[in-house]
Write a structure and sequence with these properties.
Distance between the termini: 67 Å
Structural class: alpha+beta
Strand content: over 45%
Helix content: 10-25%
Shape: globular
Length: 122
């Protein structure tokens, strides 16, 4: 009888833990870069990628076929109004286009890239 109760408690605990893991906030959107860009100093060739914001680690990840191509630390800032569509912001031109932030459709927050110390070493 006690072993059944123990098993039930273990199952309930695992279910609760799985629920907490599922609640970890991350958002993903597919996006096509029309030119090569840099993300935190890493070159991302033109093409279609998944762009993910991982709230747990405060990072933007650029993924191709599930593999991380580039990542950058990020912070959240409030927007004046909700984004009408998925947005990718960048700065620079030519070979020096750097992604500076993203916003997900319907969100009232901008996710802004915060350059790492490694990017500034030259």
């Amino acid at each position: 009888m006690t072993s059944k109760l123990n098993r039930m408690l273990v199952v309930l605990l695992l279910t609760a833990l799985a629920g907490v893991t599922a609640m970890a906030k991350s958002k993903t959107e597919n996006f096509t870069f029309m030119t090569d860009v840099k993300v935190n100093g890493t070159l991302v060739k033109k093409g279609t990628y998944s762009i993910k914001y991982d709230e747990t680690n405060s990072e933007i990840l650029i993924l191709k076929n599930g593999k991380t191509i580039a990542k950058a630390p990020a912070r959240v800032e409030q927007r004046d109004k909700k984004a009408r569509s998925f947005e990718v912001r960048s700065t620079g031109e030519g070979e020096n286009v750097e992604v500076t932030g993203i916003a997900f459709e319907g969100s009232d927050q901008n996710i802004v890239v915060t350059p790492s110390a490694a990017q500034h070493k030259n």
